[in-house]
Write a structure and sequence with these properties.
It contains 21 helices and two strands. It has a two-stranded antiparallel sheet. α11 packs parallel to α13. The radius of gyration is 22 Å and the shape is globular.
Length: 440
């Protein structure tokens, strides 16, 4: 059975109560992130030296930092995650599942597709080292390829806290969201006014938990009319503009080239303002979008993307580096234009199209890991093991994204991060094997 036919059957069997807009926003937000990464990451082939330079458009073309206001959609993904976790927790409660039973399933879906990418780059780094490539070059390449995993490190921690956050929401409602927003604001005040830079790192929790809480509010229908949502979008956008214009925050919403302060490392309240603006605008049009997604063809396309969205996200930078390596071996084909030139801009559509075609060819081969559900009869590890395993894996991902793999067997970058990630997955009861079958 072909992919379209299989997805069409799944689409036709979609329960009437399922919110299709949640799946659409999850898929769309990830595709936006991928397009943004491909747009800002460029290769320039120096014909005289015969070398390929990796350049970031945000650094070479400073005005492109404004484009990150469009392509930074991770707040939407956390909002969608809050909605989905709310649905999942309600289902778990109706089935009398405890914390460990619920968490085991969520971690299985998050960490299983990740393991293949991490192990693959561990072997690639080791192979490049055997081939004589400098450790710093290997680290640079692997760090770029593993950039997508930073999100999973954060989201995994949010998932650990999701049941507690949901209990706060069900008991206090919107005041619990306001409390998280207040904590994020106070953290930024401590960061800038008091110079407590260490406190800024706690915003990885307050900022993303606040966005996650918005998903709970959406799930419970606490968001008001489309007019109110458009008002929220306008007010949040005005706050964002004021924070950038009058405050100490930089323009770029994804990294801050040449700036001492970053909006993302650690997160700042600018991401909340951006996320609430995007969210208000997108949710104001939920009803017409739901009618559009009721089309069998449109919904089938959404299903196809959704069933391999994590695979697409995890592997998109690896595919880009594969395209760049091929360009280099072919004498820099497609990479002779310097970023910012007119020719470079005209080439952007092709630059995105080529890795997209390669990724769409690779993703169906790797997606079975993503679609494999945790066996119902598999023993559930105790909660302490799941918590320890998830934190180990998250710590390993942070190390991998900050340091990369340098190909040296005894180095912290190549071995320490790998051991933490793999060991954490094993503690969570996730097997290191390719699935014999995968359920869509």
């Amino acid at each position: 059975m072909g992919m379209w036919e299989q997805a069409s059957k799944v689409a036709a069997a979609t329960p009437a109560e399922r919110n299709r807009y949640v799946d659409f926003l999850r898929a769309a937000s990830i595709l936006f992130v991928i397009s943004g990464h491909w747009l800002i990451t460029s290769g320039y082939y120096d014909s005289e030296l015969g070398v390929m330079q990796f350049l970031l458009a945000l650094e070479v073309i400073p005005w492109t930092q404004w484009l990150t206001w469009i392509f930074q959609v991770m707040p939407i993904f956390f909002i969608v995650g809050g909605y989905s976790n709310g649905v999942s927790l309600e289902s778990a409660r109706s089935k009398n599942l405890d914390y460990a039973q619920w968490l085991a399933g969520r971690l299985h879906r998050l960490l299983t597709p990740l393991l293949l990418l991490v192990l693959a780059w561990g072997f690639i780094a080791f192979g490049l080292a055997l081939g004589g490539l400098a450790p710093e070059t290997i680290s640079f390449l692997s760090k770029g390829a593993l950039v997508p995993t930073w999100f999973l490190a954060i989201y995994t921690m949010i998932v650990l806290l999701a049941p507690a956050a949901y209990r706060l929401w069900t008991r206090f409602g919107l005041p619990s969201l306001f409390a998280l927003l207040a904590l994020a604001v106070l953290t930024d005040l401590a960061f800038f006014a008091l110079g407590w830079t260490w406190a800024g790192w706690t915003n990885y929790f307050w900022v993303w938990l606040a966005m996650h809480h918005l998903g709970f509010a959406w799930r419970d229908g606490r968001l008001g009319s489309p007019v109110m949502l458009l008002g929220l979008a306008a007010a949040s956008f005005a706050v964002l503009v004021c924070l950038i214009h009058f405050g100490p925050y930089p323009v770029a919403m994804a990294g801050s080239p040449g700036e001492a302060v970053s909006n993302t490392l650690p997160p700042k309240i600018t991401l909340i303002a951006l996320g609430m603006s995007q969210f208000g605008l997108l949710l104001a049009f939920e009803k017409p979008m739901q009618r559009w997604l009721a089309s069998q063809r449109v919904w089938t396309c959404t299903v196809i993307i959704s069933t391999m969205i994590m695979t697409i996200y995890l592997w998109h930078m690896t595919v880009l580096f594969l395209v760049l390596a091929t360009s280099y071996l072919l004498g820099g084909i497609g990479a002779h234009s310097y970023p910012g030139s007119a020719e470079w801009w005209w080439m952007r559509a092709l630059w995105i199209a080529v890795p997209a075609v390669v990724l769409l060819g690779v993703a169906p081969l790797l997606a079975p890991l993503e679609r494999l559900s945790r066996p119902a009869d598999a023993p559930v590890p105790p909660a302490w093991r799941l918590l320890c395993g998830a934190m180990m894996a998250g710590g390993g991902l942070v190390m991998a994204t900050l340091r990369g793999f340098d190909g040296q067997l005894l180095s912290l970058g190549s071995s320490g991060a790998l051991l933490l990630i793999v060991g954490g997955a094993l503690l969570c009861g996730i097997p290191l094997r390719w699935p014999a079958t995968a359920r869509a």
